[in-house]
Amino acid sequence: MLNAYIKTTEALKRLRTDKDGVVSFEYIIVAACIVAVVIAVFKTDTSISSALAGGITKISAKMAGL
Fold first, then answer.
1. DSSP E strands: which ranges in 1-66?
2. Residue-level pLDDT at 18
3. With contact defined as beta carbons under 8 Å apart, do 42 and 48 qualify?
4. Can you give the pLDDT at residue 66?
5. How many Å apart are CA 54 and CA 49, to the nearest integer?
6. What's the pLDDT at 42?
7. Keyword Transmembrane on this protein (predicted)?
8. What pLDDT score does 28 carry?
9. Sign of torsion, CA 55 57 60 62?
10. pLDDT digits over 4-62, tens only?
11. Is the entire prediction scored with pTM above 0.85?
């Protein structure tokens, strides 16, 4: 029982001092914010979404002709 307690305590100490997880979490937050902004722009501004759809259509047509 004491061995399990010591292992758990050591694991929690390593978790508190590990800063890599915090950086990964910050990247996830930034990515979520970027996705939210992109979704908001494409929902409100139809010129951007229609230009993007037109570009994808042209690219698809050119690739289908190859």
1. none
2. 65
3. yes
4. 65
5. 8
6. 73
7. yes
8. 82
9. negative
10. 888 888 887 776 776 666 677 778 888 998 888 888 877 776 777 788 888 889 999 88
11. no
Question: Rounded to an integer, what is the distance from CA 57 to the centroid of its chain?
Answer: 26
What tokens were used for 5? 């307690």
C-alpha distances out from residue 4 to 1, 14, 21, 52, Å = 5, 15, 24, 57
Q: Which two tokens stand for residue 41?
A: 């722009």
Reading the block at residue 27, the tokens are 């990247």
Kindly state the tokens that stand for 17.
């001092």
Place of tokens 């914010």: 33
Q: d(Cα 14, Cα 6) in Å, to the nearest integer?
A: 12
Burial class (CB in 10 A: 0-12, 13-18, 19+), 62: exposed
